[in-house]
From TrEMBL:
It comes from Kandleria vitulina DSM 20405. Belongs to the purine/pyrimidine phosphoribosyltransferase family. Xpt subfamily. NCBIfam families: PRK09219.1, XPRTase. It is an enzyme of class 2 (transferase). Converts the preformed base xanthine, a product of nucleic acid breakdown, to xanthosine 5'-monophosphate (XMP), so it can be reused for RNA or DNA synthesis. Its EC number is 2.4.2.22. GO terms for biological process: purine ribonucleoside salvage; xanthine metabolic process; XMP salvage. This is Xanthine phosphoribosyltransferase. Keywords: Cytoplasm, Glycosyltransferase, Purine salvage, Transferase. Homodimer. Its main location: cytoplasm.
């Protein structure tokens, strides 16, 4: 998605493997661009019937909400990154390692919101090493749902995070695939 790549190019390169996208996706949200992202995911997953969208808090929520508009307003369920004082007795948990924060957290999904056999589209802002995606899939499957695909806004393709999922038959669609970051320049993988 060319326009998305242009926005990424305007981001700040923090390290060879970290590009800040807070000017349009994480802190400030560009709704016009998110609409195009929603359209792009609908185009990529046009052949898939879904019951719900699942995402990880917090950056995935805005994207998932917009994507829902293109899939007949299916409900969006988000996974929390920590337990709260009002945690449901139906809370499912999975340990996940955060690449950007370099720490583990307990991802929590209220099992009441995923019914057995529901077809789930996962939506997330980034795919790096695959830890968050692995946690999301595990929680959805523990709840009885079936993951029919994962829509990723930005993939760090040089980290090979998608490989173990594709080997297991999971469908991954990324709108922008970063091939490398060299001397502050982000290069994208074609195709």
């Amino acid at each position: 998605m060319k326009e998305l790549e242009e926005y990424i190019q305007k981001g700040e390169v923090i390290a060879p493997d970290i590009v800040k996208v807070d000017h349009f996706l994480n802190h400030q949200i560009n709704i016009k661009l998110l609409k195009k992202i929603g359209e792009a995911f609908k185009e990529r997953f046009h052949d898939v019937s879904i019951d719900k969208i699942v995402t990880m808090e917090t950056s995935g929520i805005a994207v998932a909400a917009i994507v829902s508009l293109y899939f007949d307003d299916v409900p969006v369920v988000y996974i929390k990154k920590e337990k709260s004082a009002i945690t449901s007795k139906n809370m499912l948990e999975e340990k996940v390692h955060s690449f950007t924060k370099n720490k583990d957290y307990i991802a929590c999904l209220d099992g009441r919101y995923i019914q057995k056999g529901e077809r789930i589209l996962l939506i997330d802002d980034f795919l790096a090493n695959g830890a968050a995606l692995k946690g999301m899939i595990s929680l959805v499957e523990k709840a009885g749902g079936t993951c029919v695909g994962a829509g990723i806004v930005i993939e760090k393709a040089f980290m090979n995070g998608r490989k173990p999922f594709e080997e297991k038959g999971y469908r991954i669609e990324a709108l922008a695939r970063i091939e490398s970051v060299e001397e502050g320049i982000v290069k994208f993988k074609k195709g």
